[in-house]
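Pipeline run #58 for the internal structure catalog. This entry was flagged by the ingest filter as a single-chain record with no existing model, so it goes straight to prediction. Upstream metadata was stripped on purpose; only the residue string is passed forward. Reviewer on rotation: M.T. Logging verbosity set to normal.
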Amino acid sequence: MDLEDIRRDYQIGALDIDDLKTNPINQFEHWFNQALSASLSTDPTAMTLSTVDAQSRPFSRTVLLKGFDEHGFVFYTNYESRKARHIESNPQVCLQFTWLPLERQVLINGQAEKLSLSESAKYFQKRPRESQLAAWASQQSRGISTRALLDEAFQSMKRKFSQGEIPLPPFWGGIRVRPTQMEFWQGRSNRLHDRFVYSKDTHDQWSIERWQP
């Protein structure tokens, strides 16, 4: 198989400035709801989070969107994980949503910050009990010699918290990405894609500009 011969033309839709909401959060909500309604085979809440380490090396991984509003986009993690350590030293991050069945992408650049303890605790109590136990059991991003040790840590936490509610781990919680730039990409025929970029100025006002593909 020659990878150079694998291609397809994007013909599902188009995007013009008159189609856009004036606020990018509202535009994201519109596209997100369409992604949910489309019943995509992959999780529409999945997003790629990109960070950089102290040596300016980029790292990307998939996390799940758990909320968004005018203040930003929220996900949850272990605060001792690699991604959280990167954010601690450099809060500038990028999020990417890729909805290929709709031939769409959304890029979000912004600054990451921890949620309040009360916000994190409120969400943690909504998680399935097994997911709560897993948060306690996993020392995320640290090495472990066998899967059996991880399974034993999980069983240990299951015994420890066998009665009552499971408390929020002090090392676990939410992160909000406050956007400063958002790009909406719609695939078009002949690789002449539609790209519109919202940028926030120093007065927290959004401007919109069409970019060439």
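catalog note: The first strand starts at residue 46 and ends at 52.
catalog note: Helices lie at 24-37, 82-89, 117-124, 129-137, 147-160.
status: ready for reviewer M.T.
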